[in-house]
Design goal:
The structure is a homodimer. Chain A has 9 helices and 2 strands. Chain A has about 230 residues and is mostly helical. Chain A folds into 2 domains: about 80 residues, Arc Repressor Mutant, subunit A; about 140 residues, Four Helix Bundle (Hemerythrin (Met), subunit A). Chains A and B meet through α3, α4 and α7 of A and α3, α4 and α7 of B. The structure holds a DNA duplex (30 and 30 nucleotides).
DNA sequence: AAACAAAATTCTGCATACAGCATACTTGTG
DNA sequence: CACAAGTATGCTGTATGCAGAATTTTGTTT
């Protein structure tokens, strides 16, 4: 089953601006990235251009271009003469990344309090309330998704493209860890309390407070995830 | 004059770990990146694979791979069917990036105060003193280089690879702006005062203070650069 | 002369072909 | 039986060829 440009997930299209034709390149990048995140390509695995290309139904040329792209994102490492290897993250790498992510989200929170419109904030409140419903029902997966959405929303509300961009890069590197770490011993009540404080601070446009909660929240993420690294 | 792997700048080699063979890929990436930073490839320019390849003495295949790599770094934009274009940064893009960079350096300062060895700090003191000599002589270029070195050193002393990595990405995107902005109406004395406070805070391992100075210092960078954007 | 349409050219995107290097295997020797 | 050297296979890295899209040029019409 060959990979085609139409396999691009909808979310990858930029609906503002001129409509861009989907490209095979983007499709391959997205597919291989998913394979890494979902563990189909385990850390340390050497990518075999012939096999992987056949598996995806594309020739080596666009596949190699996608590999270079992902290497630049930090998901793959290039070994000259030996091709690409799925990057291994040490526990320290993950911890370091979470510290940086926490700081970025803190900054995003501060900026969001300055730059978000009232309507923007109402949207986050909406997400928050829906998440709380899921918490009441102890419905894990939709809770998790809405949780992610809230964090992305805060980034978006910062209206700082540079911040969003570097956050995405770092986030992508850790997505796999989060993916496996999701089953860990979460202190669910504590996380929910954090989120209550977040939405309060955001609605009060209290950037300092929001920033602090977001950073503290990320510290707890490390506690939750570190056993899995 | 064909581009060869030997044209790699020394600094690109990772001297720790196994010695890696220089690759044409890295050489092309570095060369094109420089061409963008130095303005040889102006923002908005469409990269012509045929011409550029001939100019560098390489075929289109490795060139295209390098282009994808740089696109992932954010220095190029890919237009499906139209190839790659040197990315244009708006004034807001630059301002946003500087805010994020300032925040990152602030975090790096805090971490450096925790994680740097005394010897590490002495090295920065050394750089600082040499920079001050250059300031006394009003010797602009070496001052500028030492200045850059000090900022990189603080990042390095944070001992946080993730932070160093994302900082480098954002830094690379702005290098061209810094390059042209360097001639601007710098408030040299003010910058020097900032640096005096930085080294004091670092030697006192006062993370809070160092962080604040670094962030304020970056705000001034925006003032110095914004006229050129 | 200007505007539009159509053809020709040029460029990108992808596939394939080939050369050189890395690795695995085999075979010979101590 | 173990180890080393030589051989063979297979993979990566690079160049080239081809098809289709984009752009430019040219011709035609108003």
């Amino acid at each position: 089953m060959a990979l085609e440009a139409a396999d691009l997930p909808i979310g990858d299209f930029d609906t503002r601006g001129p409509i861009l034709r989907p490209t095979l390149h983007d499709a391959i990048v997205a597919r291989v990235r998913d394979m890494i995140i979902e563990g189909e390509l385990a850390p340390g695995t050497r990518l075999h251009e012939g096999n992987l290309g056949k598996m995806l139904g594309v020739s080596r040329t666009p596949l190699r271009e996608a590999v270079k792209f992902l290497a630049s994102e930090g998901l793959l490492e290039l070994s000259p003469g030996k091709g690409a290897v799925v990057r291994q993250f040490t526990a320290k790498d993950v911890h370091d990344s979470l510290i940086v992510l926490g700081n970025m989200e803190g900054l995003a929170g501060q900026l969001a309090c300055q730059n978000a419109s009232d309507a923007d904030i109402r949207e986050v409140r909406n997400l928050h309330d829906r998440m709380m419903d899921m918490y009441a029902k102890r419905d894990r997966l939709p809770y998790f998704k809405l949780n992610q959405n809230i964090h992305s929303a805060i980034l978006r509300l910062s209206k700082n493209e540079a911040l969003i961009s570097v956050h995405n890069i770092l986030q992508a590197r850790l997505k796999r860890i989060r993916y496996i770490g999701n089953e860990g011993p979460e202190k669910w009540a504590g996380a929910v309390a954090d989120h209550e404080e977040m939405i309060e601070a955001l609605e009060a446009r209290d950037g300092e407070r929001l920033s602090k909660v977001l950073i503290a929240h990320m510290d707890k993420t490390w506690e939750r995830v570190k056993h899995a690294v």
